Amino acid sequence: MAVTVVSGTGTGIGKTMATAALAAVALAAGRTVAVLKPAQTGAAPGEPGDAAETARLAGPVTTAELARYPEPLAPETAARRAGLSPVRPTEIAGAAEKLAAEHDLVLVEGAGGLLVRYDEEGATLADAARLLDAPVLVVAAAGLGTLNATALTAEALRTRGLACTGVLVGSWPAEPGLAERCNLADLPTAAGAPLLGALPQGSGALPPAEFRARAGRWLAPALGGVWDAAGFTARYRPVP
Q: What residues form DSSP beta bridges with 37?
């Protein structure tokens, strides 16, 4: 069952762009792809959510949402305030399994960070990943503070017996500073897993055809692309 869980180290990290790039590369390789967004927050009925944005950029993927809440809050908080039912890990796992039976790849995009609450019992995306026995790709920020957030996320995965596929920089600035340059070398150590790509800042503003054409250049071979971690890190190595 080819299911990958895409989780961030926080909110606004670039999870949706990362999911779209993964989907675009898989589609280009001739694979069928489904994108599952268990809980879409901050979107009214009828508005395009993260799954729809992935489809717009990546191409013909199957999209699914299990719940939608209008306020941009953690899923459990948003559900409670809206008086709606929360999404539980068993529902997420069941939906992903159903999609996996009909697709070559299923991407499950979380909300916020790994341990954001989905229901009143404190269930998280990690619980769903454990039910699925699925690897987790960690999307991290580029700048100052990302090493701690990445290390905490990786530690949470390890304590739950979950595999971390690697870490992906969700938004790499056009003019990186010292912290961003140093973090390229340090992120694999913080994650205890390889650096598997870097999406350029503003990639979501590209025309879909251009996004699809470039996506493989942002992802490492382990994710189906041609991005070279060693070369990229060396290119931005800070001057001693």
A: 65
Cα gap 240→237, rounded to integer Å: 9
pLDDT tens digits along 21-57: 999 999 999 999 999 999 999 998 889 999 999 999 9
Which residue in the list 15, 37, 88, 212 is annotated as catalytic? 37
Q: Give the other-Cβ count within 10 Å of 40's Cβ.
A: 23
CA distances from 161 to 78, 157, 181, 189 (A): 29, 6, 31, 18
User: Is this model's pTM higher than 0.90 or not?
Assistant: yes
Helical ranges in the chain per DSSP H? 15-28, 50-58, 75-82, 89-100, 125-132, 146-159, 178-191, 208-218, 229-235
Q: Is 15 a catalytic residue?
A: no
The sign of the torsion formed by the CA atoms of 72, 77, 81, 84 equals positive
